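Researcher: Quick one. two chains, 412 residues in total.
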Amino acid sequence: MQQELVGSVVLPGDVVGVVRGDVELKLGPGVRREQDKIVATKCGVFRLRKPNMYWIDINQKRYVPVAKEHVIGIVTGKPGENFRVDIGSSQQALLPFLAFEGATKRNRPNVQIGDLLYCEISVANKDMEPELVCVDGSGKSHGMGVLSIDGFMFRCSLGLARKLLADDCPILKTLSARFSFEIAVGMNGCVWVKSKSVTNTILISNCIENSEYLGIDEIEKMVDQLVQSAHSY
Amino acid sequence: MSLRSLSCEQSLLARCDGSARFKHGETSVVAAVYGPGDVKPNKEIINKATIEVTFKPKTGLPGCAETALEKILQDTCEAVILTSLHPRSSISIILQVEHDDGSLLPCCINACCVALMDTGVPMRGFVCAVACAVQQSGEEIIDPTLEQEQVSRPGRCAGWDWATDLSIWMLSNSEHVIF
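Model:
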């Protein structure tokens, strides 16, 4: 692999490495193998996690489903024994009735059209509709399921959603020092926020949307400014 | 031989998945891309993404010349986008001419390519395009302005893939200048 390219911006078509017979490489999103070359397919920053995982950090708005990712979707229909859920991908996803904690044929989950669901993608490939579940393998929900109607969902870019899910996310640390709130982040760019009052919820969602391209100091200033202007009403 | 000053802006439109404005001097085109998204059942292809291009001229309704341009752009995009990664979906590209001061087709292609990169559509390379014209005196110029195009002899427009350096297509004007 070309070490000097790690950390720099690459364009589609750039050759980022060569496959050598004995080395095992793990290729993530944005890179693919063409015969004996590793080529970038998207525009972004080329990253490495030692010893051998390579990918490109891309920021896009449209979600492409990947198995085992958690997403937030909107229920749009109830065909047969499934729910049809819009997760922002090219096809709507299917979620079986029985994939909820405690659901049986007689005990159906209480989900209406228009409800927000936090779920995990169980099946995702390019040729089929994605399938979702709201339980893990042992039948526990771990917070998945219907999200309360008291919250507010907004969309952001996929890059911002990934930043929010990072361990040391600066915007969430800054906000949690000032407000108490509940938040769910889907890898499809949907963020659901719930807090004590409507003003706080709107403040928190505006702060998160504004924080995408700001550094840590700028985030603190931006949050302080927005909080001041809200309290001056 | 020199190009006019080029400029490019990305992510200027909020609603679409990717957008770009590309300028060759005064010629300015905005491209917007939606995708990979839903496709109508009569247009879906089982093993590839469907690419739809809409070209909107600055004034007037789109006619035959616009449809011809759409076809060229569609073929160019199909050559670079990895359509097999998104079967049964659609990638829609809409181009709006803001100002035409010559070299319109290359400007459209460049805007299209930058918008596709902004969207994050997987591509095998990207395309650059430029027009060249032969003036009445026999001198060759590249990136002609509208005035220069109208008085020059029939010229060519070429697009090529940056990564592989292969020419994707060459378009030759006939006596009747389309653009």
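Chain B is about 20% helix and 35% strand.
Researcher: Thanks, that's what I needed.
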